[in-house]
C-alpha cells in the first residue's frame, strides 16, 4: 500500500505541472486512507506537500515574469489570514464530536473528510465541464473588496482541509482582474505556496512530524511537477483536465460512501 501512496505523490505533482492545480486535492485522501493518518494530521501534511511543490512549480513562472506579484499579495495576504484563522482558532476548538445525538455520531475527522469530499465534487465539476475557461473581465475597475473577500474565503478553506484551492483562485483572478490564463495559473501557484507554507508552520505543534517520510513524499511530488511541466509543453493540460475531473469525482463519492454509509454498517 505504501508503494501506491508514493505513486500518488508523483501524480500530485504531475497534475499540478500539467494543469496548474487540482493535484493537491488527492493528498489528504492519500494520507488518510493509504498512510492511515488522522484527518487533522493529514491536512497539515498536505499543506507542506502542496506548499513546497507549488513553490517549486512557480519558480519557472518567476523566471518567465508571469507572476503578478501585486495581485498575489492583495489576494494572498487576506488568504494567509484565513489560513491562520482556520488552523489556529477553528481546528483546535472543534469538538471531538460535531454531532452526537439522535443516533447520529459525526466526529471531527468525519466532518473534515466530508467537507473535503464536497470540495472534491465541486472541483471535479469545474474540471469536467467543457467551457472551463473563465471569461475575461471587460471593465477596467478592480473590485478590491471582492478580491480581498475571495482571498479570505480561499484561505479559510485551505486551512481547514489542506488543499490549495487553485480551482477557486484562477477563476477569481481571471474574472475580477482580467488576467490571462497563463498569468492567472502562475499567480495562483504562488498564492497557494504562500497559503500552504504559512498554514503548515502555524500548526507544527498540533501533530508529530515524521520528517523523513514527509520529505520523501514531497520530493516525489516535486519530481512529478517537473514531469508535468515537460509534458505540458507537448500536450495541452486542458485536454487532460476532464479525465482527472472524473477521477476526482469518484474519489469524492468514495469518501462520502466510506465515511457515511460504510461506517454506519460497521
TrEMBL record:
It is a multi-pass membrane protein. The chain crosses the membrane at residues 7-34, 40-62, 69-90, 110-128, 152-178, 184-201, 213-231, 243-262. Keywords: Cell membrane, Membrane, Transmembrane, Transmembrane helix. Pfam families: TauE. It is found in: Cell membrane; Membrane. InterPro entries: TM_pro_TauE-like, TSUP/Inactive_protease-like. Belongs to the 4-toluene sulfonate uptake permease (TSUP) (TC 2.A.102) family. This is Probable membrane transporter protein.
